[in-house]
Design goal:
CATH class of the largest domain: Mainly Beta
CATH superfamily of the largest domain: Glucose Permease (Domain IIA)
CATH topology of the largest domain: Glucose Permease (Domain IIA)
Helix content: under 10%
Largest sheet: 9 strands, antiparallel
Strand content: 35-45%
Distance between the termini: 14 Å
Shape: globular
Number of helices: 1
Amino acid sequence: MNLPKGAKGGTVTFLGRTYPGFVTGGLLNVYVGIDMDTDPGAHPIKYDFGVDSGAREITVKTKLFDTERLTVASKYTDLDEATQARVSAETERLTLIWAETSPQRLWNKSFVKPALGPNGSPFGLRRFFNGQPRSPHSGLDIKAPEGSEVYASNAGKVVLAGELFFTGNTVIVDHGFGLYTLYAHLQRVDVAEGDEIERSQRLGLVGQTGRVTGPHLHWAAKLGGARVDPATLPGVLL
């Protein structure tokens, strides 16, 4: 968006969430996350430059996702009481992580694919595990041999590095401005929470920990709390 005279920055508000922007060449750049389950149709987006404000509309189009049926160990579909308590605690922890982000943009280069290999299961698949419906596939699977290196798709700060029940050994990187990337099912984690990392820095190795049917990297992204397709990130400066 073109900055009006006297404006030094601004924000936009969409679906109840306010997003900061950064200025380049007289333009305010703001990236808004649209979750896969957002209702299609026209939605208002409000902008505020301090010296001027207003609203426009964004039209969200309908998208149909394929279905995938997988067979996994029964412990991942029939949770006992202790496991359910663990999953609930991990979900709460993740909710807190997604809610807080660096107010600064921590990257200044284009995003890159975090592992070498062809793409597997795409973003948005409606999934059934052992015949039971579960949450849609929130990321992109990259087919890579076990032990292959996994790299940060861009610079940021590690906000989680550890084992989770469903995603196994997991790393989450905060890139600032509400943008996160997640790397799951790792064989090994090579970074620690609080580390400030650079683009293409090694995070760990491809594995098959957590709820999987074989070795691969599950790569996911969140922007402003919305689940977004990480396949849209590489090559984009954002």
